Amino acid sequence: MNAKTTGLRKRQEISSSNRTMLLWVVAASIAISFLLVATQFLYQQFTYNAKVLGLKNKAASVLVQNISNVADLKKEFNLLDTEGSKVSSRKVLNALPSQLDPSAFGTSIQQVVAPKSGVSLEAVNIDHSVLDATDAAPATVTTPTPQELKATIAVSGTYEQVASFVRNLELVIRPIKFNKLGLTGSDSNTRATLEVTTYYQPKKTVEVKKEVVKQ
After folding, report:
1. DSSP for 145-214?
2. Cα(50)–Cα(48) distance, rounded to whole angstroms?
3. Which one, out of 17, 116, 159, 201, has a CA that is 20 to 30 A from the CA of 65?
């Protein structure tokens, strides 16, 4: 009887030990799983924060460089207005206007180029298709490029006066491309029709943008 009781008690102790061991194994497995998940989460957060800091440092570096470039550009630009400079800052700005100005272009031909050449200015016609397209375009863009302004100019005078008009038109501060030149009449009475293209460039906008960094 005592032997049976002792054997039963041993089996109970072994069973209890097995249950305890199983509980410890389960608890250890849960702890290890939690540790692995937490480690993975912390690693992802670390890499994400490192990526964000890298982009912030890059943006800060670009900003510092831009500020330095602005100071250098301002210094170089101001040199144009110093004594002895052959070109003024105003002439540089007028060479490529920041907005479409057909009236100013026509006025410069009427009041400067034509009188200087001695010709009679008959007409300055602006290509209206360009004007219609420009009305729909923004006044400022992030990446500006030169835009065309096409015009047809008609003048009359002697051949020498017309030739002088063409030369003077080539010498204006604005870039002008001659697309077509038609001459009619005689040396004493010549009529010229010029199809030309000049340019302007919209202002550049500086945008401060927010960027979402994805994990």
Report:
1. --EEEEEEEEEEE-HHHHHHHHHHHHTSSS-EEEEEEEEEE-SSSEEEEEEEEEEE-PEEP------PPP
2. 5
3. 201
Place of tokens 């009188």: 115
Number of Cβ atoms within 10 Å of the Cβ of 75: 9
First and final CA of the chain: distance in angstroms?
71
CA atoms within 13 A on the CB side of 185: 16
Non-local CB neighbours of 25 within 8 Å, separated by 6+ positions: none
Tokens (6 digits) for 108: 């410069």
**Are residues 123 and 152 in contact, defined by beta-carbon separation less than 8 angstroms?**
yes
- Rounded to an integer, the average pLDDT of 112-131 is 88
CA distance 193 to 151: 10
Residue 113 binned pLDDT confidence (cut-offs 50, 70, 90): very high
What is the mean predicted confidence (pLDDT) over 47-71? 85
pLDDT of residue 140: 57
In the predicted structure, residue 91 carries a pLDDT above the cut 80: no
Check: pTM over 0.85? Answer yes or no. no
Q: Are 102 and 126 in contact (CB under 8 A)?
A: yes
Q: What is the mean pLDDT of the chain?
A: 82
In which residue are the tokens 């047809």 written? 152
Q: What is the mean pLDDT of residues 18-39?
A: 80
| pLDDT > 80? residue 57 | yes
- Spatial neighbors of 19 by CB under 8 A, at least 6 apart, are none
